Request: fold
Amino acid sequence: MIKSDIVAKVQKKLNIKKSKAEEIVDLTLEALKESLKLGEKVELRGFGIFKVVGSKRGVGRNLKTGETVTLKEGKTVKFKPSVRFKK
Reply:
């Protein structure tokens, strides 16, 4: 499923124009991104939890060339699904 599929489902469910459905989806995703940029945890009950975590420095390997590469410290987003997905 891609963003346009989500827009189509919102459009059909709410019986609204495609442009309005796209605006709703865009605003929702923007709110999610802004919260994660601020380091906040985003919890969608029944769906899961998004949170920003630090990634470690280290040494990796370029799989194509076999060359070792130094990995920088950074941040990444982790998703923990709701227990409803485990059933």
Notes: The chain has a mean pLDDT of 92.
